[in-house]
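In response to the reviewer comment on reproducibility (Comment 2.3), we provide here a single inverse folding case reported in full, input and output, so that an independent group could reproduce the run without further information from us. The structure tokens appear first.
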């Protein structure tokens, strides 16, 4: 190799590493144990206790205006009684954040691959996902910002290839911050899904799309407390759906996977947070979610379809208490949470309530 090639290459490498101000490794591990009195979210109210272990590690290469992070995230969930629901998930990825000026105008771009492995009969739900994204925030004037982004997902269900799909999400948001401690956000989002396999049959979806309008307001009440409100409106632009048949029954995608394109409506919520001191804080929240399914018929408890579509009204009440235990070990924290969910539905199988009580220990290094 000639010196004409070697010298510029060495100069580039030396310039890069001389610009690096910090190379840092992040590591976190957490345990969450929670009691769920309705693990399947239906009228049967099946109870269990779940142990969830999470591990994350990241390596950061930082300069004044750039940060590159390579990371791994893993989780193992173990059910005490219904062990056939045990699962593990893994994600690896790389993300770059570039500032076009000091502390302003960040561009984020990343790609990751994730997979989920289940046990026994639930292996049919195994999937893997390739995801890539890019977003940019532009400072406009006087603490006003415009944020735009794009997200791509490729979701592959090994045993349900019928539902494997590509997903494209684009969004645009405006953020305004005021000296009064008020922050306003408003924007729109377009979601589009296209299935791997196409059939070109009337009433059978080859794609789906949905538009969202999102708004929120956050108000600083004091140095240690804040109040947040949000509102989201979802409108389906397509009304077809995918399903599979087995003997005399029809199984819709929404009944197997969480399919956001199957319903439209709106959601709203309010959250209050309070730090009592630097080591102790709490929060409470409540939210409401309206879901009108545009192509999913309601059914009776025997699975027979009705002549009207499913409609849900979901109410959530939650509370959390956080403890910073850094005085024992730096990076050590504890959290306990309670959530009550009530889903009122005209499909009696999904007319249920749900209590979740959890306790978690987290360590960040």
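Designed residues, in position order:
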């Amino acid at each position: 190799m000639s010196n004409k090639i070697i010298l510029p290459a060495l100069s580039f490498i030396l310039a890069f590493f001389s610009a690096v101000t910090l190379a840092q490794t992040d590591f976190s591990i957490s345990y969450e144990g929670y009691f769920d009195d309705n693990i399947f979210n239906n009228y049967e109210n099946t109870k269990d206790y779940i142990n969830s272990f999470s591990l994350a590690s990241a390596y950061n290469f930082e300069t004044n205006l750039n940060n590159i992070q390579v990371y791994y995230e893993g989780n193992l969930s173990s059910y005490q009684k219904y062990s056939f629901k045990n699962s593990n998930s893994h994600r690896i990825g790389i993300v770059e954040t570039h500032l076009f000026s000091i502390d302003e105008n960040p561009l984020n771009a990343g790609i990751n691959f994730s997979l989920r492995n289940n046990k026994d009969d639930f292996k049919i739900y195994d999937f893997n996902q390739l995801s890539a994204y890019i977003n940019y925030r532009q400072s406009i004037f006087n603490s006003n910002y415009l944020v735009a982004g794009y997200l791509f997902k490729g979701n592959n269900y090994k045993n349900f290839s019928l539902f494997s799909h590509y997903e494209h999400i684009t969004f645009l948001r405006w953020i305004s911050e005021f000296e009064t401690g008020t922050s306003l956000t408003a924007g729109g989002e377009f979601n589009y899904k296209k299935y791997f396999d196409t059939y070109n049959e009337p009433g059978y979806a080859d794609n789906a799309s949905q538009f969202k309008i999102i708004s929120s307001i956050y108000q600083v009440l004091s140095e240690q407390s804040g109040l947040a409100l949000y509102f989201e409106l979802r409108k389906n632009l397509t009304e077809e759906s995918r399903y599979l048949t087995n003997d005399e029954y029809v199984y819709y995608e929404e009944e197997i996977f969480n399919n956001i394109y199957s319903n439209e409506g709106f959601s709203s919520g309010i959250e209050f947070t309070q730090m009592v001191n630097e080591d102790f804080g709490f929060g409470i929240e409540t939210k409401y979610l309206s879901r009108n399914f545009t192509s999913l018929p309601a059914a009776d408890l025997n699975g027979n379809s009705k002549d009207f579509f499913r409609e849900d009204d979901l109410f959530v009440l939650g509370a959390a208490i956080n403890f910073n235990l850094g005085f024992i070990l730096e990076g050590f924290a504890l959290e306990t949470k309670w959530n009550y969910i009530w889903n009122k539905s005209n499909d009696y199988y999904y007319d249920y309530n749900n209590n979740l009580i959890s306790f978690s220990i987290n360590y960040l290094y």
